[in-house]
Amino acid sequence: MAQAQPMDAPYAKLVQLETGIARVLAHNPSAFTYFGTQTYLLGEREVAVIDPGPDLPEHVDALEQAIGGRPVVAILCTHTHRDHSPASKPLAERTQATIVGCAPLALATVGPRADASFDGDYVPNHVLADGETIEVDGKTVTAVATPGHTSNHLCFAYEGALFTGDHVMGWSTTVVVPPDGDMAAYMQSLDKLRQREDIIYYPAHGDPVTNPQQYVRHLSGHRMQRERQILGLVRDEALAIPDIVANAYPGLDPRLVPAAGGSVFAHLVDLERRGLVQRQEELWKAA
Fold first, then answer.
1. Could you give the CA distance from residue 225 to residue 92 in angstroms, rounded to a whole number?
2. DSSP assignment of the chain
3. CB 3.0 to 4.6 Å from 32: which of 28, 115, 218, 269, for a disulfide?
């Protein structure tokens, strides 16, 4: 494995990470995408594209240039948020490649979505099941189902690397927002990754993760700590989600408050299913 390169790459430029793995950074920085969405190219004589990203003309042009006329085996999407899958359609038109990967999913969430809306125009030629494979240059790419951030989320394993989309990010914890985001499923998916033996994670946002199992244990521990914190806050009095957020996330960037509220709601829904909290209209109380 090559030494992991930091996330300071220029936009719309091909950066070689290691043999058979390169990336192009989309120019869509935000509070939820960090510097932007990283699109990965796998293979040498032929390529597969992971998370083509937003439908920005300069990004699609950069991907076409990076492909350089090589055959495109597949365009793979981890999930259907609008910073991940929309460029699949124009890129497929330019390269004649098939779109495979996650299932189509377009939902309206409760209130305006904080991180990214769903791509309602995503139409895959084939949906990959957990464990299903494709080949690039004679090497195997395997779909790894990781629901939680969204119910249709997939990671992709290739030659010791795992492309983790938004399930594991290199700069921030993952947003889990009901009704489609599910905290119990997210935790189970983290445990699934912890039992794997991947050498490095390449997330869609943020730096590569070079200590995968340790990092996944950290993420799981963080969520369990947050759960205990929420239970402690609602043990003595019934609270609304904004009050829980204000207490659990002091000094939070105002742009991130809706996302924090979504994750708190996801925790509360999971705790309610387990009989640990009760809902009283807009208020939540320990059972």
1. 43
2. -PPPPPS-PPBT-EEEEETTEEEEE-S--BTTTBT-PEEEEE-SSSEEEE---S--HHHHHHHHHHHTT--EEEEEES--BTTTSTTHHHHHHHH-PPEEESPP-----SSS-SS--B-TT---SEEPPTT-EEEETTEEEEEEE--SSSTT-EEEEETTEEEEETTS-BSSPPP--TTT--HHHHHHHHHHHHTS--SEEEESSBS-BSSHHHHHHHHHHHHHHHHHHHHHHHHSS-EEHHHHHHHHSTT--GGGHHHHHHHHHHHHHHHHHTTSEEEETTEEEE-
3. 115
Looking at residue 3, its pLDDT comes to 39
| Contact partners, residue 23, CB within 8 Å, separation at least 6 | 9, 14, 15, 17, 38, 39, 40, 41, 202
Summarised one tens digit per residue, pLDDT across range 198-220 is: 999 999 999 999 999 999 999 99
Domain 14-211 listed as CATH 3.60.15.10:
yes
Same-fold call for 14-211 versus 221-286: no
| Two tokens, residue 23 | 């990336």
Question: What is the CATH code of the structural domain delimited by 221-286?
Answer: 1.10.10.10
Between CA 123 and CA 139, with CA 102 as vertex, the angle to 5 degrees is 110
Catalytic residues: 83
Residue located via tokens 């938004």 = 166
Domain ranges in the chain are 14-211, 221-286
- How far is 147 from 170, CA to CA, in rounded Å? 18
